[in-house]
Amino acid sequence: MTQHVIALDQGTTSTRAIVFDDAGRIVASAQREHEQIMPRAGYVEHDPSEIWTNAQWVLGAALRRASGSAESIAALGITNQRETAIVWDRRTGRPVYNAIVWQDTRTQPFIDELARDDGVDRFAERTGLPLATYFSASKVRWILDNVPGARADAEAGHLLFGTPDSWLVWNLTGEARGGRHVTDVTNASRTFLMDLRTLDWDDELLEIFGIPRSMMPQIVSSSEVVGETQLPGTLRGIPVAGILGDQQAATFGQAAFRAGESKGTYGTGNFLIVNTGTEPVRSRHGLLTTVAYRIGDEPAHYALEGSIAVTGSLVQWLRDNLGIISDSNEVEKLAASVPDSGGAYFVPAFSGLFAPYWRPDARGAIVGMTRFVNRAHLARAALEATAFQTLDVIDAAQRDTGMALGELRADGGMTRNDLLMQFQSDLLRIPVVRPRIVETTALGAAYAAGLATGVWADRDGLREHWREERRWEPVMEQAERDRRVRLWHKAVQRSLDWVDDDVRGLQATD
Questions:
Q1: What DSSP designation does 37 have?
Q2: Collapsing DSSP states into helix, strand and coil, what is residue 2?
Q3: Is the pTM higher than 0.90?
Q4: CB atoms < 10 A from the CB of 21, how many?
Q5: Which end of the chain is more exposed for a tag (fewer CB within 10 A), N or C?
Q6: What span, in angstroms and rounded, lies between the C-alpha atoms of 106 and 100?
Q7: What is the DSSP code (8-state) at residue 319?
Q8: Which of 312, 313, 318 minimizes the C-alpha distance to 415?
Q9: Could you state, in chain order, the average pLDDT of each consecutive group of 10 residues for the chain (510 residues)?
């Protein structure tokens, strides 16, 4: 009998559930968006209760749509937006504050204070990460310091912290009636609180950030059974057997299991991951050292990652803030109506610039504007910004590893945009390859859960499921490519050093 695995993909803008068969094919799916809450400049929040409600709905809807072709579900895998911080009361199951999203920059003054003497790399040897608002630790501290009664409750042992995977697993496995409070090594490595080599919470960092250890989830492997679902009906009794942060899950779904293998995910943000094997490699060119995955009791595999904050969300911004398009799917047609960006360059540093620059003082800039530029040129400049930012992180990865990429395996929703994929190949001067299943984030979570429950025997078997759908080869002349890259880097320089002390203070108190 064909076995099936369901993946719960809790992303930055929506939550999806996808049922896969044992050949890695999609059987059924369901999806729901959740509200983006932005109460003031630099603040980005989600409602954890809305996320949990949506998770239950999409799981039920996907299983109903799969009825008849998926008689039973062997396992559930979870993948999630990673650095987003949720704090809730273990007694009631209620969040004490909205989830503070990975894009949020409200804690920049505290980060600046920590970095004042020894710089942003003060704890990089231990964590693999620069000091930045991106990661979870400073967000948890903010909640404890700013929500009335939260610090006292935390010190009394009443509050729990987790990234969205922890929140979902706790609720799925029984919530206040015995739910498991866990996170996997990939998500733990993005909190700024885990030692990369011991794979355990670091007591000194917990003390520096003022976070009681009692709040922290147990760190588990990416592929192991951690509990069973306690929901009604067909959602009851399913083993929760896989947890991976979204970018590591996409790497898993692309079958990039070995050192030197890589993937690029095009979603709300863009993320390049290069597997470096069982030893962490420290980046010297602005990338992050992170855990790629851990299977059962095996040694963890590590990776270098280039994180870009704003790519797909820039298309949403064109839709929601400027009204240039009414639907995100319209952007390619509009951009394709002009041969180029008309000399305009868009640097979407809405939350500063992430890899490889790590410049929180940067802000979004559109440069090269003339009266000739119209909305189609801006749409094209927005798409091209995704490709330019990806070029920057791939260049950094190649300098760190000393290895040139032979091709880029690309996944995520934006890979359906053929114009973008062609421009990406032109900039990189290598083929860009899209797999048959572009939803590799959910697929990776399903793979991890299926490995833990015997649906798949090993990683080599998973490799056999990967299939290429389309390939783009570079066609742009080298001189034209070099000219555009040069102008892009000029545009980046124009975006820097915008947020100084008085601007930062204004945003912090707005």
A1: B
A2: coil
A3: no
A4: 17
A5: N
A6: 9
A7: I
A8: 312
A9: 91 94 92 94 95 96 83 92 96 97 93 90 92 95 97 97 98 93 97 96 97 98 96 88 95 88 86 89 90 95 90 91 89 94 95 88 94 95 96 91 84 90 96 86 95 92 87 97 97 92 47
